[in-house]
Protein backbone atom coordinates (compact mmCIF):
# COMPACT_ATOMS: atom_id res chain seq x y z
CA UNK A 1 0.00 0.00 0.00
CA UNK A 2 1.24 3.46 -0.87
CA UNK A 3 0.62 6.83 0.73
CA UNK A 4 -1.58 7.68 -2.28
CA UNK A 5 -3.70 4.60 -1.49
CA UNK A 6 -4.25 5.87 2.06
CA UNK A 7 -5.28 9.25 0.66
CA UNK A 8 -7.75 7.61 -1.75
CA UNK A 9 -9.25 5.51 1.06
CA UNK A 10 -9.75 8.65 3.14
CA UNK A 11 -11.47 10.38 0.21
CA UNK A 12 -13.80 7.44 -0.45
CA UNK A 13 -14.64 6.43 3.14
CA UNK A 14 -14.83 9.87 4.76
CA UNK A 15 -15.99 11.98 1.83
CA UNK A 16 -13.27 14.60 2.21
CA UNK A 17 -11.62 16.34 -0.72
CA UNK A 18 -8.36 15.08 -2.19
CA UNK A 19 -6.51 18.14 -0.80
CA UNK A 20 -7.96 17.63 2.71
CA UNK A 21 -7.01 13.95 2.64
CA UNK A 22 -3.46 14.75 1.48
CA UNK A 23 -3.07 17.39 4.21
CA UNK A 24 -4.38 14.99 6.86
CA UNK A 25 -2.04 12.15 5.89
CA UNK A 26 0.93 14.53 5.59
CA UNK A 27 0.18 16.00 9.03
CA UNK A 28 0.02 12.55 10.62
CA UNK A 29 3.24 11.35 8.99
CA UNK A 30 5.10 14.60 9.70
CA UNK A 31 4.05 14.40 13.36
CA UNK A 32 5.28 10.81 13.55
CA UNK A 33 8.61 11.71 11.91
CA UNK A 34 9.11 14.67 14.26
CA UNK A 35 8.39 12.53 17.33
CA UNK A 36 10.82 9.81 16.22
CA UNK A 37 13.53 12.38 15.43
CA UNK A 38 13.15 13.70 19.00
CA UNK A 39 13.66 10.16 20.31
CA UNK A 40 10.02 9.68 21.34
CA UNK A 41 8.24 6.35 20.93
CA UNK A 42 4.91 6.07 19.12
CA UNK A 43 2.21 3.61 20.16
CA UNK A 44 -0.90 3.08 18.04
CA UNK A 45 -3.35 0.71 19.74
CA UNK A 46 -4.42 -2.13 17.48
CA UNK A 47 -1.47 -1.56 15.11
CA UNK A 48 1.82 -1.52 16.99
CA UNK A 49 4.59 0.66 18.33
CA UNK A 50 7.61 2.42 16.89
CA UNK A 51 10.60 2.50 19.23
CA UNK A 52 13.78 4.51 18.86
CA UNK A 53 16.77 2.35 19.76
CA UNK A 54 20.11 3.90 20.63
CA UNK A 55 23.24 2.08 19.48
CA UNK A 56 26.57 2.87 21.12
CA UNK A 57 29.65 3.57 19.06
CA UNK A 58 32.22 0.81 18.69
CA UNK A 59 35.45 -0.11 16.96
CA UNK A 60 34.69 -1.94 13.72
CA UNK A 61 37.06 -3.51 11.21
CA UNK A 62 37.37 -3.25 7.47
CA UNK A 63 37.04 -6.93 6.46
CA UNK A 64 39.31 -6.46 3.44
CA UNK A 65 42.25 -4.69 5.12
CA UNK A 66 41.66 -5.44 8.79
CA UNK A 67 41.97 -1.72 9.52
CA UNK A 68 40.20 -0.58 12.71
CA UNK A 69 37.43 1.91 11.94
CA UNK A 70 35.51 3.83 14.62
CA UNK A 71 31.74 3.49 14.19
CA UNK A 72 29.76 6.44 15.55
CA UNK A 73 26.79 6.02 17.90
CA UNK A 74 23.49 5.99 16.05
CA UNK A 75 19.78 5.51 16.45
CA UNK A 76 17.52 3.06 14.67
CA UNK A 77 13.78 2.58 14.54
CA UNK A 78 12.10 -0.67 15.52
CA UNK A 79 8.46 -1.54 14.87
CA UNK A 80 6.69 -4.09 17.01
CA UNK A 81 3.24 -5.18 15.91
CA UNK A 82 0.37 -5.14 18.36
CA UNK A 83 -1.30 -8.41 19.35
CA UNK A 84 -4.52 -7.55 17.51
CA UNK A 85 -2.72 -6.94 14.20
CA UNK A 86 -0.42 -9.93 14.62
CA UNK A 87 -3.39 -12.24 15.26
CA UNK A 88 -5.28 -10.80 12.30
CA UNK A 89 -2.33 -11.25 9.93
CA UNK A 90 -1.74 -14.82 11.13
CA UNK A 91 -5.41 -15.77 10.77
CA UNK A 92 -5.94 -17.95 7.70
CA UNK A 93 -7.56 -16.15 4.77
CA UNK A 94 -10.66 -18.38 4.65
CA UNK A 95 -11.82 -17.68 8.23
CA UNK A 96 -14.51 -15.05 8.72
CA UNK A 97 -13.24 -12.05 10.67
CA UNK A 98 -15.11 -12.71 13.92
CA UNK A 99 -14.02 -16.34 14.25
CA UNK A 100 -10.76 -18.14 14.69
CA UNK A 101 -8.94 -17.71 17.96
CA UNK A 102 -11.85 -17.64 20.37
CA UNK A 103 -11.50 -14.84 22.88
CA UNK A 104 -8.08 -13.89 21.52
CA UNK A 105 -6.40 -15.46 24.57
CA UNK A 106 -3.99 -18.36 24.64
CA UNK A 107 -0.92 -19.11 22.63
CA UNK A 108 -0.45 -17.41 19.26
CA UNK A 109 -0.37 -19.55 16.13
CA UNK A 110 3.00 -21.05 15.24
CA UNK A 111 4.55 -20.26 11.85
CA UNK A 112 5.03 -23.16 9.46
CA UNK A 113 8.38 -24.85 9.88
CA UNK A 114 8.96 -23.45 13.35
Describe what this molecule looks like in 3D.
The chain is an alpha+beta fold. It has a single domain (3-90), classed as HU Protein, Chain A. It has helices spanning 3-14, 18-37, 83-90, and strands at residues 42-44, 48-55, 58-61, 68-71, 74-81. It has a three-stranded antiparallel β-sheet. Strands 3-4 form a two-stranded antiparallel ribbon. α1 (3-14) crosses α2 (18-37). The longest helix has 20 residues, at 18-37. The two termini are 28 Å apart.
String of helices and strands: HHEEEEEH
Please identify which CATH superfamily we are dealing with. IHF-like DNA-binding proteins
Based on the coordinates given, report the CATH architecture. Irregular
Low-confidence stretches: 100-105
What is the beta-strand fraction? 15-25%
**Helix content estimate:** 25-40%
Number of helices: 3
Distance between the termini: 28 Å
> How many β strands by DSSP?
5
What strand order characterises the main sheet?
A: 1-2-5
Calculate Rg over CA atoms.
21 Å
Which class do the helix and strand fractions yield? alpha+beta
Broad shape: elongated
**What is the CATH T-level topology?**
HU Protein, Chain A
Secondary-structure map:
Layout: H1 3-14, H2 18-37, E1 42-44, E2 48-55, E3 58-61, E4 68-71, E5 74-81, H3 83-90
Helix pairs in contact: 1-2
Amino acid sequence: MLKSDLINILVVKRGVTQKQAEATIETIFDSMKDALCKGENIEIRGLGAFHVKHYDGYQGRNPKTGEVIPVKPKRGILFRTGKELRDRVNRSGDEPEGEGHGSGRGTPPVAAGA
